[in-house]
Structures are given as structure tokens and as C-alpha cells.
Amino acid sequence: MSVRTLIVDDSMAMQAIIRRRLLADPGIEVVGTAASADEARAQIKALDPDVVTLDIEMPGMSGLDFLERLMRLRPTPVVMLSTLTAQGAEASLTALERGAFDCFDKTRLMAGTDAACTSELTELVRAAATARPAARATPVRAAAPVQERATYTPRPGAMIAIGASTGGVEALIELLSGFPANCPPTVIVQHMPATFTPSFAARLNRLCAPSVEEARAGAPLAVGKVYLAPGGERHMEIGGSGDRRHCRLVEGDKVNGHRPSVDRLFHSVARLAGRDATAAILTGMGCDGAEGMKAMRGCGSMTFGQDKATSVVYGMPAIAQQIGAVTEQLPLRKIAARLLAECAA
After folding, report:
1. Catalytic annotation present for 177
2. d(CA 314, CA 306)
3. DSSP secondary structure string, 105-126?
4. What pLDDT score does 86 carry?
5. In the chain, what are the domain boundaries?
6. Of the listed 82, 92, 165, 199, which one is catalytic?
7. How far is CA 345 from the centre of its chain?
8. Residue 139: what pLDDT?
9. Is 82 a catalytic residue?
10. Inter-residue contact 83 to 63 (CB < 8 Å)
11. 10-residue mean pLDDT series, the chain (345 residues)
12. Which of 330, 322, 283, 264 shows the shortest CA–CA distance to 302?
């Protein structure tokens, strides 16, 4: 059955470009177009599309405001089209927090007939069609961050490694909001463009009790520190041992289609931290992180996978579960507590 898609963009030229890209996949049908929020509302009601592509910048009601209303009244998988400027990154992160399935770089669509771009967009739309977003009474807000717990002390040498992809923005906000200010040293790979990661790290730092920042080469892994891998040209690994571990940013080809790769991080943690580490693999498309997590489990680490019911895309956690990499599968709301418990003194 084809994926019935509605294109929402105020530019007729952009509508045509998106239509042409999507129709390159015989499994996708464009059932309609809309140039404003009012038109989109009517089209969604009349056509009941499987997926909506939505421009962030529109006249009248913005794409972000329309997304919020759509997710509250008629939850539908949405792929946001945005630019990868700093301003576009902030808007895209807001869209992901409000329930968008994922974001796609709008400028790439205008760059001729890039076959890779077409393939990535159609794959994203197909994946979005499998998602079933839940209705939201109000926009998602992170819980009040947990401050330092007098009763919680991380075990010396303990650390946490986390991997996520599609759906990871919301998942990481929820998970890290359960971490105290004195959490174990934590390293995270979230598949995300290079222009997004500084903004996302800053947003997590505002919302969560620990100190969250984009990783830099040589940054020491310390209690209360959470490092997010920079998007783009390098992988993040760990170096050192014991209380002298630090972040490494290393050159290398993409792994499982990604750079930074969750697998590269997890394999380094397996080698250098072994049973001192615990890991979680969260919502996301593909298989990145599964083999690395299996290596961690083989070295004695406790490993947790997000369950299907709470994953936006049950891909990475599913593969990890299938190959025996996951010690325990849990709903998202329970993962933070289990990670902390495994690292407690």
C-alpha cells in the first residue's frame, strides 16, 4: 500500500520540487498540496494523509504553531522541512520537541537532482508512515530537573553511554531530566546535523540538572558532566581509563551511514570501560549501536533498550534486542532510574 502524503508549503515551486522528489518512489503517493495552515487543515480533514511534509516558515500561522495544534487535535506523522542555519536549527529542535517525526534540510531539495537526497527524503517519509504519534493536551515540557541527591553517589569509575536517532530529541530530554546534578559521566551520540548539536546541547543544559555540553577533544569525563557528540565530520569515542577517561573526536568513514556513529562510541566504551559502563539505546531508524552494545554486554556491561511502545521508531533498539545486545528492555520513563542504579556506589 502506498504512503499517502500531503505537501504543505507556501511556495508553488517548492511544492513541485517536493512532489517530484517523492514521486520518484513508486511506494509514495502525493494526495494533495496546501499553501497555508488553513488549507492544510482542510486537506488533512478531507484526505486523511499518512504523512505530512510541513514547511516551518509559512504566512499566517507558522509551521511550528500548526504542528502544535495538529499534534493536539489530530496526531499525524510530520516531516518538517527547514534550513540548517543556526536559526533553522532552533526551529527544527522546537518542532522535534512538539512531536515532528524528523526534519529534512530544505535547501538540499533545490540542489538539482541529487539522487541521495531523493532517497533520504523518501526513506524518511516511508519511516514516518509507520509512526503513530499520540495526542498531546499541551506541548511537551521536560519535568523539573532533579537536583543533586543526597542519597545518590555514583560509583567511582562508573559511566553511562547512550545512543539515539529519530525521536531522540524528545527521548533524551525526558531521560536526562531524570538525572541528578551529580550523575555519572555520560556520553551521547544523537544522529543530528552539525548545525543542530550546539543548540541541542545548550537546550539540554537549560532543561536538565547536570552540565550538558557539546563534546570537545580531551574533555574529561567527570561526575555531573554529560557530553553530546558534535554532528558532522568526526566520530566520538572515549580514551583513557578509570577516573582519567576523556572524550576523543576522531576522523573516519561513516559507520552504518552515520558520523558520529553510536557503534564507534559503544565499541570504545567496551574496550576502555568494560563492566564499569552501562548503556542505553533509544528510538531510531536503522541498526547503528547494536553491535557496539553487544560488545559492551560481552564485556560485562548492563545494557538497556527502549521498548517498542515508547519508541518513535523501533529500529535501533529492535536490532539490538534481536542480536542479544540488550540485557533488559524498558519503557523510556524507566530507563534513567535503571542507568543510575547500575552506576550507584
Report:
1. no
2. 8
3. EHHHHTSTT-HHHHHHHHHHHH
4. 64
5. 3-129, 159-342
6. 165
7. 30
8. 46
9. no
10. no
11. 95 94 96 95 96 91 93 94 77 92 89 83 95 64 55 95 96 96 97 93 96 97 98 95 93 96 98 97 97 98 97 96 98 97 96
12. 330
CB atoms within 10 A of CB 138: 7
Render 50-69 in DSSP notation, one character per residue.
SEEEEES--SSS-HHHHHHH
Pairing of strands 102-105, 78-82: parallel
Q: Cell digits for 167?
A: 525521536
* HSE (side-chain half, CA atoms, 13 Å) at 152: 21
> 288, 301, 307, 311: which one is catalytic?
288
**Coil, strand, or helix at residue 104?**
strand
In the set 25, 92, 105, 191, the catalytic residue is 191
- CATH architecture for residues 3-129: 3-Layer(aba) Sandwich (3.40)
CA count, 13 A, side-chain hemisphere, 81: 26
Q: Is 288 a catalytic residue?
A: yes
Contact assessment for residue 320 and residue 281, using Cβ atoms and an 8 Å cutoff: yes
Residue 168 · residue 262 · CB < 8 Å = no
The residue type of 11 is S
pLDDT reported for residue 150: 60
> Does CATH number 3.40.50.180 belong to domain 159-342?
yes
**Does 3-129 match 159-342 in CATH topology?**
yes
What's the confidence (pLDDT) of residue 101?
Answer: 95
Query: pTM of this prediction?
Result: 0.90
Between CA 78 and CA 233 the distance in angstroms is 28
- The conformation of residue 238, written as its DSSP 8-state character, comes to E
